[in-house]
Amino acid sequence: MKIKKYIAPNIAEAMKQIRKELGTDAVILNSREILQGGFLGFFKKKKIEVIVGLDPEPLSQQAIQVKKEKPSSIQQENTNNKRNSTNKDVLQEIQQLRKFVELQSKNQNVNSYPINYELFYQHLINQEVTPQLAKNLIDTMIEQHKDKNLTNNQILEELKRIITKSLQHYSFDGMNTGKKIIQFIGPTGVGKTTTLAKIASNLVLKEKKKVAFITMDTYRIAAVEQLKTYAQILHVPLEVAYTVEDYKNAINKFNSYDLILVDTAGRNFREEKYVKDLLKNLDANIEMETFLVLSLTAKPKDILEIYDQFQHIPMKEVIFTKLDETRQFGSLLNICMEKEVGIAYMTNGQDVPYDILEGNPYKIAELIVGEYNEE
């Protein structure tokens, strides 16, 4: 079914446009009054918005006549398959119309996109993709396929492809085991210590690396005890650094180790002093990689602001935690596209060492777009 929206001064004018373009077989699906034009919110004029549907290939009388002769089993099977396919298409169209009418009833801003593209745009917004980025993605898809009438499934796959391609400009390398020191930074409560333990477990158990721990999170006794427990399980040494001098001494002590993983204090990211203290540690050794750990359950705006607060610290990539605690994944895309940084890892549970995934453009696209059918 072809869906089209008309805006006219009145219903008579709208019907005139509809009959001229679509003929008399068009069906009105929804109509409402809207306000348009004006200046600074004043002097807006009332207009009529009409959503119309038209089946470009209506069933002919000949097609719906039942044959007198009994169809063969193969013919019957083909008929059933066609009927099932048609029913599926009709159900999709009904779902589209229902969602579109819901958007209008909620007075959400609706673009001038065709209805199926509009619904995917709204899906991206519901996934907490920033409005401008969502618009860019849909505009790109429409421009690339302006002469085609894509189905829902085709739009879904095409949107995945465009997101994946857009993310391929950024690094998703993860940790470089050739570096000596790996530092994990970020605000409180995002799961830095557990993430560090997951990465350390894979290094020790799978890659047979000689690993040591340093913790600078002396503000929370529980954090030190947690890392001590992981250190005992993995049989790796741990040093607690209360000062920058302690930190440098610990690095010298572990000089013979392949990797030193550093757990920093989780503090209020808005405290500039905390960030300045982290900057002091960068002079301790040039062979360092820093990863910013963020929680996907945080507000999208806060996530971008956290990144800005830490941007003066040279960081390789970011790590997102708590994928299993949310159904909104737009921040994965936002931070890559808006801050031009890749994602090293994503964690999706508390189990050490299992609940950790490597950053991957296609996986991110699937997380964002794959939720569409479940809405």
Give an account of the 3D structure.
The chain has 375 residues and is of the alpha/beta class. 45% of the residues lie in helices and 18% in strands. It has 13 helices and eleven strands. Mean pLDDT is 82; it is low at 60-64.
Describe how the helices and strands are arranged.
Layout lengths: L1 E7 L2 H12 L4 E10 L8 E10 L6 H4 L8 H33 L9 H12 L4 H14 L7 H16 L13 E5 L6 H14 L5 E5 L5 H14 L3 E3 L3 H10 L5 E5 L8 H10 L6 E8 L4 H11 L6 E5 L8 H10 L3 E5 L8 E3 L2 H9 L6
Parallel strand pairs: 4-7, 4-8, 5-6, 5-7, 8-9, 9-10
Antiparallel strand pairs: 1-3, 2-3, 10-11
Helix pairs in contact: 3-4, 4-5, 5-6, 6-13, 7-8, 11-12
Q: List segments where confidence is low: pLDDT < 50 over at least 5 consecutive residues.
A: 60-64
- End-to-end separation in angstroms reads 22 Å
Which percent bin holds the helix content? 40-55%
Whole-number mean pLDDT:
82
Number of helices: 13
> What is the total tally of β strands?
11
- Please, what is the oligomeric state? single chain
